[in-house]
Amino acid sequence: xxxxxxxxxxxxxxxxxxxxxxxxxxxxxxxxxxxxLFLGNVLAQWPVDCxxxxxxxxxxxxxxxxxxxxxxxxxxxxxxxxEPSTLGTDFKSYDYYWLDERVSWPSVFYNYGCSCDxxxxxxxxxxxxxxxYGAECDEQRVITxxxxxxxxxxxxxxxxxxxxxxxxxxxxxxxxxxxxHAKMEEMKGSDNDTSGFYEPSSYFDYFSWLHEYAxxxxxxxxxxxxxxxxxxxxxxxxxxxxxxxxxxxxVGGDDxxxxxxxxxxGVGNECGVCTDRLLGRNHENGTLISGAFNGHxxxxxxxxxMLLSEGNICGNVTEPITRAPGTNPTAPYLPSNEDLxxxxxxxxxxxxxxxxxxxxxxxEGTCNPATGxxxxxxxxxxxxxxxxxxxxxxxxxxxxxxxxxxxxSYYDLVFEQWIQNNGADGLGSxxxxxxxxxxxxxxxxxxxxxxxxxxxxxxxxxxxxxxxDIV
Length: 471
What we know:
Blueprint: H1 9-19, H2 32-38, E1 46-47, H3 53-58, E2 60-61, E3 77-81, E4 112-116, E5 120-121, E6 127-128, E7 132-133, E8 139-140, E9 143-145, H4 154-169, E10 171-177, H5 181-187, E11 198-202, H6 203-215, H7 233-252, E12 299-300, E13 319-320, H8 337-344, H9 359-364, H10 380-388, H11 403-427, E14 466-468
Parallel strand pairs: 2-4, 9-14
Antiparallel strand pairs: 1-10, 3-4, 5-6, 7-8, 10-11, 12-13
Helix pairs in contact: 4-7, 7-11
């Protein structure tokens, strides 16, 4: 779907409704007061107010908050220069890194953004910090994520499926693009305006785009990924899960909602959430044949292996998502309890770029969790993704399948348990330099905006307003 940007939110909603008219409209649309008031402020890329020709030309993303004041005004935030972050460039991830628009994030696009006062956050400083709620963000509480398969959690399972379904059918007020900055500059007209290259997106599809953009290679598959194969994997996905959880709270009108997890450790080849009641069963060819996510609107929005050097970010394909658990001969089983315990046994977060012998590569699965050695096989996180085949195993595309979020909610639980076991001593090894670009402790997490650094998430989950039922 290709839609121009419109000058008002109502015009964007009307245009999107027309282009998406084949989709069933969810019940949440009747909660019009909630949707119109809050839904525009729960994501992380560019707000539509920041992709006008004026904002792009000035490289300024300081939109007005819901109170009509830039960055919320006094007591909420102000428009400030975005300070550069440490790139970790003592370790050059690839020779032509300087051509990549994601390096020195987000300076290719913006030099000014809102700096928010506590406890506000968001592009316009009109969201609450994690764990805070209410019109003035003065209600603090902790929500608890639970195992979606445990007895007694049927209601939260139903809510999860419903809210995710609604997120697919509702448009966000954030804009995405399918061309790189260089390609847009090349294709722009005599008016020197690139604002027309940005498009609206549903809330759910936005997250597929975000993950695709962060993990796409530049020239070759061996290039840097900003979300995997380095110490930023846990901060990146923790931030993504918090954003996704907050989005579902707003879509569902349920600020007590906590994103459940699925424990995929030690279950052999059994996908306990691949059922009619939950995420659906699949045909032997991988196509989903039951559940809420097998309809024509549940399509894979992004192709894998889009090279940014070719000017494309996301293929915007329209093929249905597929899932084929246990069919990949290199990953017939999910990780074992022994693998998890071995990974948890490493008390140092990271000893050096891609060297193994520490928690992060053991838990990500780029090294053998028992020996700490890099042997070319997949373990833990990497093995589990490979187990599912197709969409779930593509490094760039797994968020097109809702299973990704239950999977990564548990992966964050593993991180949380390790933090509680090892504390500041273990996290103190998170490197500042000699890491892939974007993975430094002081680097901004690509491609989130407003900017936030990896080191922000090196703390216990309750610092961010959530916990787990077993941790």
